[in-house]
Design a protein that fits this description.
Blueprint lengths: L16 H11 L6 H7 L11 H5 L16 E4 L7 E5 L6 E6 L5 E5 L10 E3 L7 E4 L4 E4 L5 E3 L9 E5 L5 E6 L6 H8 L4 H7 L8 H5 L3
Antiparallel strand pairs: 1-10, 2-3, 3-4, 5-6, 6-7, 7-8, 9-10
The protein binds FE2/S2 (inorganic) cluster.
Length: 216
């Protein structure tokens, strides 16, 4: 499967109770500790979500613009090592890509090049673990980190936070801004969900963060 394949149809929240249930579970108690949570959250990074002049001019939406968590979206029923899937997240115009690296690590990124906003492609056969490639000006991004490894892109690909369910389903749940840590991105977007914020270890969440952070 490649990023040029069409993504599976997005579940309609009104017609897919599983989506709403997943979001609730994420926000409530499906994840038990900050460490556990971050282990299953596959990714997030920095870099403005949309690069180039259009972004500089504020024309295009950027991943991570909102402080509210986007609706969780199932992007794949399963994803095997070496496979990728293209999808739109958090909005219908926001191109994104999820990749299962050969060692099983699940990563997700904006698929909009940070140079001039061309579409980024997954090339499994390149390097030791594949790469994300922009054909417009030969931009290359590290598949594991989203960092720029070649070409003119000025910033890393912004990451998309992914969660994998026990049945193998892959869900996109949040995004990050340029240079933003996974933890900060999650705390920002789940600030109005105290239970989740506490599990992540967000500052001020239920007054338990400092206690937890001294143990981890
Ligand atoms: S638009 Fe991607 S390298 Fe130029």
């Amino acid at each position: 499967m490649s990023v040029t394949d069409q993504p599976p149809p997005a579940p309609d929240p009104a017609a897919d109770p599983a989506q709403a249930a997943l979001h609730d579970r994420i926000a409530a108690d499906s994840l038990t500790t900050r460490r556990d949570y971050l282990r299953i959250v596959a990714t997030v990074s920095g870099g403005l979500a949309v690069g180039g002049i259009a972004v500089a001019g504020g024309v295009l939406h950027r991943h991570g613009d909102s402080d509210a968590p986007p609706d969780a979206k199932r992007v794949a029923l399963t994803l095997a090592p070496g496979e990728s899937i293209a999808f739109r997240f958090p909005g219908d115009d926001d191109r994104a890509v999820a990749v299962r690296l050969k060692d099983g690590t699940l990563v997700g990124y904006s698929a909009v090049c940070t140079h001039l906003a061309c579409g980024v492609l997954w090339r499994e056969e390149r390097g030791s673990e594949g790469e994300l490639y922009c054909p417009c000006h030969e931009g290359v991004f590290d598949a594991r980190t989203g960092e720029v490894t070649a070409g003119p892109p000025p910033r890393p690909l912004p990451r998309v936070l992914l969660v994998e369910e026990a049945d193998g389903g892959v869900w996109a749940v949040a995004t990050a801004r340029s240079g933003e840590s996974v933890e900060h991105a999650m705390c920002r977007q789940f600030a109005d969900k105290p239970g989740m914020a506490a599990r992540i270890g967000c500052p001020g969440a239920n007054g338990k963060v400092a206690e937890r952070s001294t143990r981890t």
